[in-house]
Amino acid sequence: MATSNSPLPLSRVPCPHCSETFTARGLKCHMTRKHPSHQPTPRIANNTDFFDILSRLKMNTKTLKRIPKGAKIAAAEALTSTIMNCLNSKNTDDWMNLFLFSYKAFQLPDKTANGPSLTSKVKSNINLDSSNFSWNENRKHHQPKQSDPKTSYAKRAISKLEDGDISGAVRILSSDESFAPFDASTLESLRLKHPTASFQSFSSVPFSNLNSAPFQTCNEDILKAIFSFPSGSAGGIDGLRPQYLKDMVGLQTGAAGLKLVNSLTELANTMLRGAIPPTLCPILFGANLCALRKKDGGIRPIAIGNTFRRLV
Question: Cα–Cα 20 to 30 A to 179, which of 135, 249, 252, 258?
Fold first, then answer.
């Protein structure tokens, strides 16, 4: 029986990644030592910080190419909710949750012998609150490995064939181009080809009638546009692959897919009205640059824009 001089028992909380329990301080130490790749996303102070986070996620986080069949409905419902939160609240944090969605929900899980099924893992990720989304900030940036060009072409072609992109596989095998080195020289070459635009350059853009009603789209147009994306199309800086949209609005998702189409139509019409928060425009309307080295030594940049912008 406890007396007035007996120490009170400290409350213990379970680790979200294993079965052990700890005090609040002990859990923090345990997470740092045992689960360094599962630290909560730091609070984003401004748009520049968030752009930097997305850039690192793009380089360091591998995502699934297809959504597992059993997780498509849950994914469609979650993305619909995330989009509608953006449109209804006008809160920048909600838009950040949208841009983090693919990395949170579809990140490629670690290969473990007795781990949960891929469908279970994706569903678990979808239900994870974005404020607790985990990623490893200290992971080294990915750099393309220098390997035999023939081997590299073969691997890339096989990857395209797995995506169902036959023409893309043929294009790779018949091309003389390879990935440019991941270094300062390549970055400078890309900057020379894509200089920063000045504000004055926009002042000469003609506007025929600022009072005219913007074009607005409908569900049928959105569906047609989604399925017009070529197989194996890459995602932009937010990691959202066009294939994810195909998986989530297909016949298998039923009512959940239809609701997602409705939300995508509302998002598209919001973009067409120019009602996107200005601070998010560099992310939504920007693009990743993939540098290819030409046979003559030059650089050919490939721009991969945000899937929502490409959809519109």
Answer: 135
CA 23/CA 153 separation, integer angstroms? 52
- Angle at alpha carbon of residue 36, lines to 34 and 40, rounded to 5°: 120
Measured from the Cβ of residue 150, the count of other Cβ atoms closer than 10 Å reads 9
Query: Mean pLDDT per 10-residue run, the chain (312 residues)?
Result: 42 63 64 53 54 86 92 96 90 89 89 76 81 49 49 64 67 68 84 72 57 89 96 91 96 95 97 88 86 81 92 95
**Phi, psi (deg, nearest 5) at residue 164:** 85, 10
Q: Is 129 left (phi over 0), alpha (psi -120 to 50) or beta?
A: beta
